Amino acid sequence: MANTKSAIKRIRVAERNRLRNKAYKSAVKTLTKRYHEALETLGSNPSEENTKLVDERMSAAYSKIDKAVKRGVLHRNAGARRKSQIAKARKNDEQAVSA
């Protein structure tokens, strides 16, 4: 166990940051998963309503990724990679539907 006041504070700060980081990473994963589910629904049943749902979920995932990058939870390049994979999935799905 830590003996000094500063070491005790560092333990508290580290735990607080760990929980915040965990929450952001979990939210990014959840929103990405929901986006992919909406894409599958759009692929099996293309409609205006499903397209709107995909757009909303894509926007929510992008927003959470950007916030995680801003707060230092994700590295800039990791955030860009995740957003790129989301956009690539959308593009591939649209090509599959149109073909």
TrEMBL record:
One of its GO terms (biological process) is translation. The keyword Ribonucleoprotein applies. Residues 76-99 are annotated as: Disordered. Pfam families: Ribosomal_S20p (PF01649). Residues 90-99 have a biased composition (Basic and acidic residues). SUPFAM superfamilies: Ribosomal protein S20. Residues 76-89 have a biased composition (Basic residues). InterPro entries: Ribosomal_bS20, Ribosomal_bS20_sf. The keyword Plastid does not apply. Keywords: Ribonucleoprotein, Ribosomal protein, RNA-binding, rRNA-binding. GO terms for molecular function: small ribosomal subunit rRNA binding; structural constituent of ribosome. GO terms for cellular component: cytosol; small ribosomal subunit. PANTHER family: 30S RIBOSOMAL PROTEIN S20, SMALL RIBOSOMAL SUBUNIT PROTEIN BS20C. Belongs to the bacterial ribosomal protein bS20 family. Binds directly to 16S ribosomal RNA. This is Small ribosomal subunit protein bS20. It comes from Leptolyngbya foveolarum.
